[in-house]
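Continuing the series of single-chain predictions for the mutant panel. This is the parent chain; the variants come on the following pages.
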Amino acid sequence: MTEIIARFRTLDGPARTIERVLLMALTLVGAVWATQVQHYLPWAFFNEQYLGLFLALGLSPVFLCVRASPRAPVDRVPWYDWLAALGALVVGGYVTIFYPTIAYSLGILTWDKLILGGLAVFLVLESVRRLAGWALMWIALACILYAKFAWLLPGVLYAKGSMWGRIAVYLYLDSSGIFGVPLAVTASIVVAYIFFGAALAAVGGDKFLSDLALVAMGRYRGGPAKMAVVSSSLYGLVSGSAVANVVVDGAITIPMMKRAGYPAHLAAAIEAVSSNGGQIMPPVMGAAAFLIAEYLSISYGEVALAAAIPACLYYLALFVQVDLEAAKLGLAGRAPAEIPRLRQLMRRGWVFLVPLLVLVYTLMLSNWEAGKAGMLAVVTTFLVGALQKETRPSWRGILDAIESTARTMLDLVAITTLAGVVIGSLQLSGFTSKLPLILVSMAGGNVFLLLVLTAIVSIILGMSLPTTVVYITLAVLVGPALGQLGIVPLAAHLFLFYFGMLSLITPPDCLATYAAAAIAKSDFWRTGWTGMRLGIVAYIVPFVFVFHPALILRGTPAEIIVAILTASAGVILLGIGCAGYLFRPLGWVRRSWACLAGLCLILPPLSWLPEVAADAVGLALGGLLVAMEWTATTRQETAPA
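Parent structure:
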């Protein structure tokens, strides 16, 4: 984390003015577009023209803000970075100005398209290298080289190959390249929700959410850890970014958990897993959730509703393990004097619930466009903040929120344009049509084996790619194969989303765990394996809702209710087995017993085992274990010393 922070410059004078103007323009242009003002303009405006402007404003500040290497100056911008920033403005501005003409001659290679296409690809690769490191850049470069030299490879990897000029122009101007769906969703939807989070912080709403979690959980055993779970899920409503959750929430909750008696590695793992859940917690999930709605041509509210039950099961398993870990460590709740009073908290903070209610209503009930709903939430946040003197934002605070939104957007603009480079290269080479055939042939028509292979590929890709990029890649490459085998499309896309998200807590390359371990000063590997245990449900539930769509609200009311009740009981038993504690510490035999009972309740209907039989076995095993442990513990407590 220190290395990443050290890459940013601290500018002043004219350079700082230019930097700030570009950053604020990025947020404001994105915010205006998200409100769909363009539909009311008296002239036609291509979506690609807006994306060109957004790309120009999103890439050029990268070269002003971020140093090319540790040896580059910190307080000034070198001449080559000024040129790179100017180049970003040119490649984006060219599309903004000339796209109405370009649209009718995309297949014609001209010198201006060739030069600007090569420059655009270079700037995207360099911006990602500066912001996210070498790994992402090498992956994208490998895809470009494959599009060129695929004719040298044997077997299924063989392809005809393309000329350098065709590759550059295709990646630059085609809707499957840089200006594809990933950048479009980021520029029209995600920007609104990052702005929402910045607006909430500007009026003090983030502290209200943390205090609300403290009121709800602070008095119980392991209260600080439970507060971390609740506050991270609440912060996930406005963030959807695991690393952002860890950095914002973890700076408060991890030291609090350590002071309460949690070991450093456990405190870090709890925060990492809690924060990672923010990506799957409705109403505002990770950026990939908006892409699911786009790919399936359904409303975002439908995606969020489908993801609600799996997200609750994820947090239920985490909550159970956190509570049992606290019991195992003998931790008590916080003193009443340290907990804010709910009445006082709500008296000054109830206004912060209004933007969340507005967001839920517009997304879930009124089916507004996601970007438009997000911007209404931003406006509502500033309005309700202005109602009270202590939360009223100053003009400086509003401007800082606008600038901080853009700084967060820099990573997303670079990464989503890189995703366009990767997807465009693979589509140009024809690889996108081959991978489904490869996986299907390896699976031999076995749906479960195909899902296992897909899950492994998702986690491996996620070790070097962000969740959004993993989802986009697999939605294009593997989504059709899953659909061919009869899987419900929404379940298939949520499956890809989940396993792309899990890479953030799965060692060896898990960014959320890295960030949490750095804050806690704990051993990374111990933190990583503990995080996998705490997040165990996320590795299991996606397989369940693929075969049993009732968990994503696809089925009759009776099927949905039974699925929720049995899965909840199964998750609790699974948490008991993973934590190794019920009323007293459990040995490995009884831990395995609890896990087996939980899996029987969670499992979807199988051809050789009816659902009723599996649920009956799970309930019997779980009930017997709880009764035996309760009896044994009661005897120990009542036995004479």
